[in-house]
């Protein structure tokens, strides 16, 4: 099943509310996905700096790391975000590579990505989503069908710098696509079908495609049921499979564009009673963006 | 204080923000055909699923807001009005009565419904009238792909456009489309509008309050080539 929530703010004055509103949407979607949850949130960036969201086993002392690099670090349960001047990326990756207990969950100027096993409310609470602010966020509640219930199998999946993907549905040709992508050097950590979709988008971008072109290529190459929501530094995109098996509802007001697997997830958003509410059409790539 | 309160002389208002959906449905399902309490208003639906399902008393239930999945499902004789949009499967398996959605409806509206009338003022998405078995459906806007898939009987009136594969594997339902049809499904074809068709269409347009002439519509129906196996049709099965 799974649930997807996305919120893209047009009105800057709502930015401090982003985490709270997103957590509320994920909470409603618990009965579409109670086994794990995750979210990507696009907060204020620091010019010339990059962020890594890192994950390690519970109890890992992330603060020991920045001491080595002289970096700022914020800890969120078993995740941490480190920020560093962009020119130090290669150096820091090299050091992190010597710590197999640490995974780099995401990279971005603005995006931070958190996910874990448990009820969406618990996951939101563990990472402190309610207090986070930003311009947009994408979240997911998972009811696993395709692979194990693990943190790695939770969504979102990172597809590149400041990019992530969440998925409701199941892909039927993911093993074949995974083999093709693996030959092209795309690395996979799980047997999860969504990771293949994320890898497919990442591969297309690596080959020079733009994001909308990558999503059109997904329509041609990925077989199965899907509603994808893709987060980017400046907004988000939506794509449903041509049969439109998986639900999607959008709401737009002067203040925001919101995505929910069901309208219920949108019912608490401010001004929803006057929003333009519609279903995105199948096999059509949608984007909402604003100047970075 | 009970969530159900008489707001006017004859309307009982039920607040789904204050009492559970099961209580609403149990109350409505418990009404018998002779009840004097015939007007009900449902507040704060908030997209909840299965609102006002399985009604058998001739009452009018007005839902003030957006409804979720299967709203007014299995309706048998009641009038359900949604002052908002409705999710997947509105009026699914309706037997009789009226369901009127003032906004849009999601996929599979009126699925498998045997009777009654479903009116949608806005658009319906995919699979509208899938496997319909006698219901009348009037959509004032557009319908999505695979509408009237395997539709067996009844009438589907589409005042806007139809998406891909309209009437795929159609049986004997009548389809009337005023706008364009993106493509016809297997075994669906244009038919002559008979006098009987015209009478049915005029009646449904009047009931739905649509100001249009039957001549503006094209009638589609089954070519009946898939009723029995024929090797030349293998590609269409």
Class inferred from helices and paired strands of chain A: alpha+beta
CATH superfamily of chain B: Glutamate synthase, alpha subunit, C-terminal domain
Uncertain runs of chain A with pLDDT below 50, 5 residues or more?
Answer: none
Give the CATH superfamily of the largest domain in chain A: Aminohydrolase, N-terminal nucleophile (Ntn) domain
Look at the structure and give the CATH class of chain B. Answer: Mainly Beta
Characterization of the model:
The complex is a heterodimer of chains A (292) and B (237). Helices cover 24% and strands 33% of the residues of chain A. Chain A is α+β, with helices and mostly antiparallel strands. In chain A, strand 13 (249-252) and strand 14 (256-260) form a beta hairpin. Chain A is globular, with a radius of gyration of 18 Å. The model of chain A has no long low-confidence stretch (mean pLDDT 93). With 237 residues, chain B is mainly beta. Chain B contains two helices and twelve strands; from the N terminus they run ββαβββββββββαβ. In chain B, strands 1-2-3-4-5-6-7-8-9-10-12-11 form a twelve-stranded mixed sheet, with helices on one face. In chain B, strand 2 (11-15), helix 1 and strand 3 form a beta-alpha-beta unit. Chain B starts with a strand and ends in a 15-residue tail after the last strand. The model of chain B has no long low-confidence stretch (mean pLDDT 95). The interface between A and B is medium-sized, with 15 and 18 residues.
């Amino acid at each position: 099943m799974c649930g997807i929530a996305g919120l893209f703010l047009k009105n800057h004055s709502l930015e401090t509310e982003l985490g709270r509103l997103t957590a509320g949407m994920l909470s409603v979607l618990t009965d579409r996905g109670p086994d794990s949850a995750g979210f990507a949130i696009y907060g204020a960036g620091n010019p010339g700096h990059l962020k890594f969201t890192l994950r390690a086993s519970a109890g890992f002392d992330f603060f020991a790391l920045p001491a080595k690099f002289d970096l700022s670090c914020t800890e969120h349960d078993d995740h941490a975000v480190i920020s560093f001047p962009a020119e130090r990326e290669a150096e820091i990756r090299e050091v992190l590579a010597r710590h197999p207990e640490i995974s780099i969950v995401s990279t971005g100027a603005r995006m931070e990505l958190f996910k874990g096993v448990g009820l969406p409310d618990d996951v939101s609470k563990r990472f402190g989503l309610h207090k986070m602010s930003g311009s947009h966020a994408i979240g997911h509640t998972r009811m696993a069908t395709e692979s194990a219930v693990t943190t790695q199998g939770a969504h979102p999946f990172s597809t590149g710098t400041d990019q992530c993907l969440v998925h409701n549905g199941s892909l039927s040709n993911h093993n074949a696509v995974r083999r093709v992508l693996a030959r092209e050097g795309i690395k996979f950590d799980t047997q999860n079908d969504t990771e293949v979709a994320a890898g497919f988008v990442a591969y297309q971008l690596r080959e020079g495609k733009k994001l909308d072109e990558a999503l059109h290529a997904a329509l041609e190459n990925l077989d199965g049921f899907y509603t994808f929501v893709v987060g980017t530094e400046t907004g988000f995109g939506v794509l449903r499979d041509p049969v439109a098996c998986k639900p999607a509802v959008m709401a737009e007001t002067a203040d925001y564009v919101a995505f929910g697997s069901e309208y219920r997830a949108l019912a608490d958003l401010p001004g929803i009673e006057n929003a333009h509410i519609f279903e995105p059409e199948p096999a059509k790539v949608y984007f909402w963006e604003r100047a970075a | 204080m009970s969530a159900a309160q008489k707001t006017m002389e004859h309307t009982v208002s039920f607040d789904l923000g204050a009492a559970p959906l099961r209580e609403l449905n149990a109350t409505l399902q418990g009404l018998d055909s002779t009840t004097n309490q015939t007007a009900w208003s449902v507040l704060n639906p908030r997209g909840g699923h299965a609102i006002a399902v399985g009604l058998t008393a001739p009452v009018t239930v007005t839902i003030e807001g957006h409804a979720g999945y299967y709203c007014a499902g299995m309706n048998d004789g009641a009038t359900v009005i949604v002052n908002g949009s409705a999710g997947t499967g509105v009026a699914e398996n309706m037997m009789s009565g009226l369901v009127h959605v003032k906004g849009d409806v999601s996929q599979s509206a009126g699925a498998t419904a045997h009777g009654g009338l479903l009116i949608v003022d806005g658009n319906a998405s995919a699979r509208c009238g899938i496997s319909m078995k006698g219901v009348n459906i009037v959509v004032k806007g557009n319908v999505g792909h695979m509408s009237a898939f395997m539709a067996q009987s009844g009438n589907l009136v589409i005042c806007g456009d139809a998406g891909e594969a309209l009437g795929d594997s159609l049986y004997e339902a009548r389809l009337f489309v005023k706008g364009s049809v993106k493509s016809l499904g297997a075994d669906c074809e244009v038919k002559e509008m008979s006098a009987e068709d015209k009478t049915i269409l005029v009646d449904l347009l009047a009931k739905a309050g649509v100001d249009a002439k039957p001549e503006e519509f094209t009638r589609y129906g089954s070519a009946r080539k898939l009723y029995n196996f024929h090797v030349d049709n293998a590609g269409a099965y």
